[in-house]
Amino acid sequence: MSQQANNEAEPQTHPWKHYDRNRLRPGMSYPVGATEIEQAFRDADATLDHMRMLLPQGDGVFRGGLILLWADWSGDYPGSGPARAANLPRASLDVRAVPSELRQTARHLIVDSGLERAAKWFRSAADSGNSWRASRHTLTLWLYPDGPRWQED
């Protein structure tokens, strides 16, 4: 094998196995892209089964709280339960589109703390004990008219 062949870089892989991105409706924007998400997860040495960029349900009008990020650990149990029966991913992250006029606000929240917190949460999930990993957990970043809120279940 030649020296050149030994030095060739391997193709870059993403910190997720599957990626989906909904087509945007007029007036909606994604606050961040895959590049920012990928960097946060690489920095935290965290991985996902599924990364999704989704449109919110409904018309997207900001009447109350909007979900910006939704992290889901569906449970680490062998082949049973609803998550495994439905073949759902164990670790998934959803980034939700927002009304275009809220894009900069949402981007600021997600880039400044949201992605780092979610990535570290997934990293700590992988290192947690059997009891924690065996059950479902979620971490959600909401944007309300009076500011952001985190919810952890």
Quick rundown:
With 153 residues, the protein is of the alpha/beta class. It has helices at residues 3-7, 34-43, 81-85, 103-127, 130-133; strands at residues 16-21, 28-29, 48-54, 66-73, 91-96, 98-99, 137-144, 147-152.
Give an overview in words.
This protein has 153 residues and is α/β, with parallel strands linked by helices. It has a domain at 41-90 and 112-131 and 139-148. It is 32% helix and 29% strand. The protein is built from 5 helices and 8 strands. Strands 1-3-5-4-7-8 form a 6-stranded mixed β-sheet, with helices on one face. A hairpin with a 2-residue loop joins strand 7 and strand 8. The longest helix is centred in the C-terminal third of the chain and has 25 residues, at 103-127. The relative contact order is 0.21.
Order of helices and strands: HEEHEEHEEHHEE
Query: How many DSSP-defined strands?
Result: 8
Low-confidence stretches: 1-11
What does the main sheet amount to? 6 strands, mixed
Derived from helix and strand composition plus strand pairing, the structural class reads alpha/beta
- Radius of gyration over C-alpha positions, nearest whole angstrom: 17 Å
* Spatial strand order of the main sheet: 1-3-5-4-7-8
**Continuous helix count:** 5
Q: What average pLDDT do the residues reach? A: 80
Range of helix content: 25-40%
Q: Which band does the percent of strand residues land in?
A: 25-35%
Distance between the termini: 53 Å
Q: Given the C-alpha coordinates, what overall shape results?
A: globular
